[in-house]
Design a protein that fits this description.
The protein is an all-alpha fold. The protein has two domains: 80 residues; 31 residues, no CATH class. It contains seven helices and no strands. The chain is extended.
C-alpha cells in the first residue's frame, strides 16, 4: 500500500485506502460490530465516490456488490468463511481436462476424473 502513495493522486489513494481498510476489517476473525459498521460505511463511501473519481461506467455489478460485504460478515463472520478462492483455484485443473471447442465439456471432465 505504501508503494501506491506516491504513484496515485492523493484523492485516489485515499479512496483506495477506504476499500483496503474495510476489507482488512472484514477479514479479521472476530471484528466487533462497531468495526463491521465502520467497514460498512467505508464500503458505501468507496462505491459512492467511485462514480465521481472514475465515472458512472466504473459502477459495474462487482463494484456495487461491495456494499453487501459487511452484511455477509455480520451473517457468516470473517469474509474468509464465504470466499470462493478454493473453488477458483480448482478451475485451472478443470480447464486442463478440456480439449477442443465442442460443447461436451462435462463429459470430458467426467472421463478425466
Amino acid at each position: 500500500m505504501i508503494v501506491l502513495r506516491k504513484v496515485l493522486p492523493s484523492n485516489k489513494y485515499k479512496h483506495f485506502l477506504k476499500l483496503h481498510c474495510a476489507i482488512y476489517i472484514l477479514l479479521c476473525s472476530n471484528p466487533t460490530n462497531e468495526l463491521k459498521s465502520t467497514a460498512n460505511s467505508l464500503l458505501h463511501e468507496f462505491v459512492e465516490e467511485s462514480s465521481i473519481l472514475y465515472g458512472k461506467e466504473f459502477l459495474v455489478y462487482n463494484v456495487h456488490s461491495l456494499v453487501h460485504l459487511a452484511d455477509d460478515a455480520y451473517k457468516f463472520g470473517s469474509l474468509d468463511n464465504v470466499s470462493a478462492f478454493p473453488f477458483e483455484n480448482a478451475m485451472q485443473q478443470l480447464l486442463r481436462y478440456l480439449r477442443g471447442k465442442n460443447d461436451k465439456h462435462l463429459q470430458q471432465v467426467v472421463k478425466k476424473t
